[in-house]
Amino acid sequence: MTKDLLGRHKAVLPDWLALYYDNPLEITHGEGRHVWDAEGNKYLDFFGGILTTMTVHALPEVTKAVSEQAGRILHSSTLYLNRPMVELAERVAQLSGIPDARVFFTTSGTEANDTALLLATSYRRSNQILAMRNSYHGRSFSAVGITGNRGWSPTSLSPLQTLYVHGGVRTRGPYAHLSDAEFIAACVADLKDLLGHVRPPAALIAEPVQGVGGFTSPPDGLYAAFREVLAERGVLWIADEVQTGWGRTGDHFWGWQAHGQNGPPDILTFAKGIGNGSSIGGVVARADIMNCLDSNSISTFGGTQITMAAGLANLTYLLEHDLQGNARRVGGLLIERLRAAAAKHPGVREVRGRGLMIGVELVKPGTDEADPQAASAVLEAAREGGLLIGKGGGHDTSALRIAPPLSLTVAEAEEGAAILERALASTQ
What we know:
Strand content: 15-25%
Strand order of the largest sheet: 4-10-9-8-7-5-6
Distance between the termini: 33 Å
Helix content: 25-40%
Shape: globular
């Protein structure tokens, strides 16, 4: 059945549509932190549909909310008043930390970032954007154009002029040997030097933790230091929270809060986990920025009633069950467990991350050279052991990405770590 489906997939879908595994997997259903494939195999899910299944698979509260909303109306567009959209916007605005916030819903993180770029460039009357090296912001034409990761940017054509800044990767690059304070100072000096050569850009867009880049991050406070420099020149700060939002990092509800000493971002984008699998993305911005567009607009599917019902139910569950706190507690245990396992394997360069957003970077033993073949081999071995994980990384895809639902239990964390340790051992 799976081979037949793979043949049909290849016959009608693009060659560049990536699939995991030598024998791709069809996931048919899920429950809690587990999923099952078409052959009936059960897996512990440590990737959650690319960080999208934020609470649990088949969360009854979401299922009930979606079912009840579907029995009333699925969709009407933004041309009509929409109670679930207003209710979710009110909650997101309050949680965002942005004063006088306005919220615009989209169907994906890509579209959210695209909208943020439209707002920033319109507000600032500039098409110049600062982005971070090793970044990823989506697959639309403008989002690909600012992505600082060659493996996910198929074209150099762009409607924007992009300048790339140091700082998103703490342990690689020209400043890796410095202390955290020295690292921040060097990156700020580099930013100031760059800004001295160009007209003031529209905005800096940055992921607090780089997702596709392999869950890399700067020292806490870097973007606060950047914000001080940018604010002097009127340059906006866009925090791409598509992967880091909703408490995944454990320590904070939003990733930007680790860099909040000089206030919140001007624009915040979100998606993935809020819908727990439903297609929800969005942008939060100060009213003067959000309202700067001088033409009408709508969203046919952004904020549609059924996805808003899912988002409201999922967010309520997340907050009432303190899943941010669970991510901090269980994630901390999981990171330490993985670091202990990694110490036995010379091919593991680093275990990094915070909360339930963990990267394991692989290199060729005895070198600092990325080893994408090893990452693929561990991905396969983990699947054979009953564990689904992801992968990513900058110049080469050599980092394992671990991001389970935020309700992960201690027992499941131990189980997943044991499977991953055996997978590492089997490939070295």
